[in-house]
Amino acid sequence: MDLGFGDRNNEIGQATAQALLTGAQVQEQSLDAELTKFDRLLDDDDALETLRQKRLEELQSTYTKQQKWKSLGHGTYQELTSGGSNTNDVAKDFFQASKESERLVVHFYRPSTRLCDVFHAHLSKLAPKHLETRFVKINVEGCDAQEGSGASYLVEKLGIVVMPTLVLIKNRQAFHHIRGFDEFGGNEDFSSNVLAYVLGKNHGILDLRDDEEVSDEVLQYQGINKMTIRKIKSAKKGYYDDEEDEFE
After folding, report:
1. Which of these, 83, 95, 118, 168, has the minimum number of CB atoms within 10 Å of its CB?
2. Which InterPro entries does the protein's record reference (predicted)?
3. If we measure between CA atoms, which residue out of 192, 185, 74 comes closest to residue 133?
4. Exposed/middle/buried for 212, CB within 10 Å: 0-12, 13-18, 19+?
């Protein structure tokens, strides 16, 4: 049989056709096995009911968890002292938020710094998609002139020196700073998916969605930094003690 490879390459063509046929047969066998398993399940009322109950329990658990997250402010990108806070002390609100939410992304920004708007735009998109993580922002404009204020305290203890800065907190540990855009290729022309990739894949602060995967070509082109996470231990870099509302 001539497969269009020419006389000299006909053998290669035959091998290719056989490989394709074998692959199709393997896929067909796998599908048949899944269908057989499903047919058996349909014939077993008890097994089907068990599966249905398990699925209902999973859905209920997910719903309950999501409702709890929403009650804590997850799903929105908020100024930390807004939305139901009983205090104007941003430091107290920061500690409270870190206690309530297992994963927290805090954007320290100045309204007068245009590049902070880049993070504002992206974080506003990510917050509704990632209920598992809380996204908040803290305005540090003028806090240098308000020595002793909550914002000033956080800036000093967390070592906030670059605007914008994201502080990543997991299990009440401030474990990483993202300062500026170095981890995104060094410029502001990165997408929300790239930000999600860095936050999820590199730092584990959110659960990466299927539609947020970024190709290796994009990562290489933009020079995305896959840096290794190191715990922050010095006071200036902001090690947050999980037993006390203080920094060591």
Report:
1. 83
2. PedC-like
3. 74
4. buried
Range of weakest confidence among 30-34, 132-136, 186-190, 240-244: 240-244
CA distances from 67 to 91, 132, 170 (A): 26, 11, 20
- DSSP category for residue 108: E
Lowest mean pLDDT among 39-48, 108-117, 133-142: 39-48
Closest to 127 measured CA to CA, from 9, 218, 206, 41: 206
The amino acid present at 54, given as its one-letter code, is: K
* CA–CA distance, 147 with 130 (Å, rounded to integer): 35
